[in-house]
Amino acid sequence: MRVALALLALLAVPALAQDVKKEIQRYQQMIAEGSPVELYELEGEALWKSPQGPNKVSLEKCDLGLGAGVTKGAYARLPRYFKDTDRVMDLEARLLHCMTTLQGRSIQDATRRLFGNDDRASEMELLSAYVAGRSRGAKMAPGTGHPKEQAAFELGRAMFFHRAGAWDFSCASCHGEEDKRIRMQDLPLLYKPQYARPVMATWPAYRVSNSQFKTMQWRINDCYRQMRMPEPTFGSEATVALTMFLTVTGKGEPYRGPGTKR
Amino acid sequence: MAAGPMKMRATLAGGYTDVRVLMTHPMETGQRKDADGKIIPLNFIQNVEVKVNGRTVVEAQISQAVSRNPVFSFRIKGGAKGDRIEVSWLDNQGLTNKTEAAVA
Amino acid sequence: MKPLRRVLLGAFLAGLLKPFAALAATWNKDAFGAKSAPDALKSLGASNAAASKDLVIEAPQIAENGAVVPIEITSNIPGTSSIAVLIEKNPFPLAGKFEFKEGALPFVKLNVKIGETSDVRVVAEAGGRHYTAAKEIKVTIGGCGG
Fold first, then answer.
1. How far apart are CA B25 and CA B42, in angstroms?
2. How far apart are the first and last CA of chain B?
3. Given CB atoms, is B26 within the 8 Å cutoff of chain A?
4. CB A27 to CB C146 under 8 A?
5. How distant, in Å, are the alpha carbons of A2, A236, C40, C89 from that of C34?
6. CATH 1.10.10.10 for domain A35-261
7. Same domain, C49 and C93
8. C91: nearest CA partner in chain B
9. Are strands C129-139 and A87-89 parallel, antiparallel or unpaired?
10. Per residue in C93-143, pLDDT tens?
């Protein structure tokens, strides 16, 4: 606690604040260079290829937007509109769709364990790691041409700024003003491209604070929990809209692959 | 319980071979409690060995203070494409795992 | 030869007793069980380690999360045969000891858990002598704590 206060005091002095920022950047760089992220991508690949469900098929024919079974570059083009479901979907909503249609699994079965824990990542987390990894280097280019894609963006933007819940918070309460910080964490201004780009280019990610691999659906779910808002439904229109808003705001950035974050 | 996945990459750098190995392991300190309030027992990798073409070059003893899902980097003198690198580990409960890779 | 000694020698020769050195090398219980850095150093026989600028610790001064703190150690001391890593304020300071045989460079990068702001101390053994260097790493809890 004393250390945190001492560091906070340092941040009040501009020159020293820069040093603190630099050291934190160094921390972030070093953990990224020595991160277990790849293990999740590997496990995810194995899972992608394993036959499951009543239909006993793998997800290898899943259409993520670039055609059945095409994983390379697919994540960078999400969220997008899908004709077969007539809705805009993000990666996880689409994975859920493939699990229920291709593999014949029930919604209950496929959503039984959406978010993992210390010992075992969830299927969604592993599959997300693999599929996202396959977009490494690709420019982020979510769908923007279809009217439903545009509507999703507008809904996401409205939600970003809409205050609600027990504490009257919106996403913008934390992520809507310059130079805001929670303890030692700089809060990126997510509605501005320069801040959204590096953030969206590194999700899903391995989080060292709980040694787990986490996805955007989890991130939104957890932010809502922290905002004392009702829990959003997995892959819902609302969560996809928020992800669409953030991804469009960050578009053009080369996707760096699953990240390593605090 | 089988050991989780392990991955290693060995790449030629300037005059040495960079060996990066990722291990899946809880590295439990024996100080955490589970949901029921029971202590989660000590469970951590104690020994790590690095071999080049069958010969041991690094022997490590580590403690539960090493982070969960350990990632290590080592450096081998020189090295050539195709050299066989093997990294193995042994934990305090007798579980082991190993992985091999050729220097690229 | 005294009777007990003869029995022990017999047992040793019969392979029933491993030489003390082989058992101790498997995992140094004493050193890893030491609750203070000086005690751990004593178990390693490194109490008289001399400070050395040729033992380089590359690590961030601030760790956003103490569960994973990256540390990179390079020894430029000729003939380095081992590097030990200690986190002084941890309940059990010794985090690892790396022995480098012919063919390995005295270098290691690892991620460690640091419970609170602490000095990270490394000890290198070279030519039968010990050398040491330390670096303070501040540990903080970032963000929403979640």
1. 12
2. 32
3. yes
4. no
5. 27, 53, 5, 12
6. no
7. yes
8. B65
9. unpaired
10. 999 999 999 999 999 999 999 999 999 999 999 999 999 999 999 998 655
CATH number of the domain encompassing residue B65: 2.60.40.10
Residue B103 identity (one-letter amino acid): V
Residue B61 lies inside a defined structural domain of this protein: yes
Residue C10: which pLDDT band, with cuts at 50, 70 and 90? low
| Per-residue confidence band for C20, with pLDDT thresholds at 50, 70 and 90 | very low
Q: Considering only CB atoms, which chain C residues are within 8 Å of A30?
A: 59-60, 70, 72
Cβ pairs B/C, distance under 8 A: 94
Q: Look-up: residue for tokens 């993520």? A: A64
**Quick one: tokens of C105?**
């460079």
Whole-angstrom distance, CA of residue C83 vs CA of residue B60? 9
* Closest CB to B22 among A36, A119, A208: A36
Quick check: is C78 in a domain? yes
Number of domains in chain B: 1
Mutate to test the interface with A, among C58, C119, C140 (most CBs of A within 10 A): C140
A120: alpha, beta or left? (left if phi > 0; alpha if psi -120 to 50): beta
* Chain B: residues touching C (Cβ < 8 Å): 16, 29, 31, 46-47, 50, 52, 55-68, 70-77, 92
Q: Which residue of A has its CA nearest to B5?
A: A39
Q: Say which CATH number the domain at C121 has.
A: 2.60.40.2470
ipTM: 0.95
**CA–CA gap between residue B95 and residue B26 (Å, rounded):** 12
| C60 plus C84 within the same structural domain | yes
Tell me which chain C residues have a C-beta less than 8 angstroms from the C-beta of A34: 70, 109-111
CA B66, B101, A261: angle at the middle one, nearest 5?
40
User: Is the backbone peptide bond immediately before A54 cis, with ω within 30 degrees of 0?
Assistant: no
**Could you confirm whether A62 is annotated as catalytic?**
no
pLDDT digits 0-9 by tens, C49-99: 999 999 999 999 999 889 999 999 999 999 999 999 999 999 999 999 999
